[in-house]
Amino acid sequence: MCYSDSTTPICVISDMFLPWTVDSCCLFDIPRIVFSGMGVLPTVIVGNASSHVPCISSLHHSEPVNLPSVPFSLNKTDFPDLFWCADDKHPMLPILSELQQAEYNSWGIVVNSFEELEGDHVDAFEYQKETRAWLVGPLLLHDQIKQDLMNSGSGNVDQKQTSQYIEWLDQKTEGVGPGNVIYVAFGSQSYMTDLQMEEIALGLEMAGEQFIWVELMRGDQGKKARERARELGRKARQAVEKGGSSDKKLDELIECLTSRQKNSS
Fold this sequence. Notes:
alpha/beta, Rossmann fold, 4-stranded parallel β-sheet, 50% helix, GLYCOSYLTRANSFERASE, transferase, UDP-glucosyltransferase activity, glycosyltransferase
């Protein structure tokens, strides 16, 4: 990120898995900002779990794990073995340590999330990371919003995605490729193990037929899940639109960076 009249960056935003960028930024006195794609709450969970490894490792697999600032219980098996094997020689430990040190030496963190989804957990996130965080996502929607504005009246994104499947199915009746398409759906009334799902998938693949695999959620639970997904989708788009929460956070970040630049010059 640079001023329009300067080739000197006012910051470097780099992925959390590129810790070496901190050293490069320090050489030129450029603030490094971490980009986190994990989200706020998952990061809080991982951070709290890493500081409770002895406790988690002593639990039975079915016992609940209650972590600070996490509004629900987890099970021991919800975590990778790093958090419950209590192995101080685990190969991931040096990597995580390097990432944590790089974050500590960074200027701030931008997160691919938005206030309406994870705003309640930002305080715990910033306390854990000991730095500022800006929720500027979902980044995927920024370009989509611009494209929608350019092509206003052409329909929303969901309609476009749905039409792709319809067009593909229509082609099968028009002689484009094999004409048979297997529709695979199991609903939500029965539980399918991973092994069963894998066997069905292998069978479909061996049959050589084209298919559409659909996972459905039925009943009140499915209805509530779909309603929540639609509502969050609406809020996500509003967040990145002009004046939305993520748009404001991005402006706030730029203002903080420009103020820092002016004060240091």
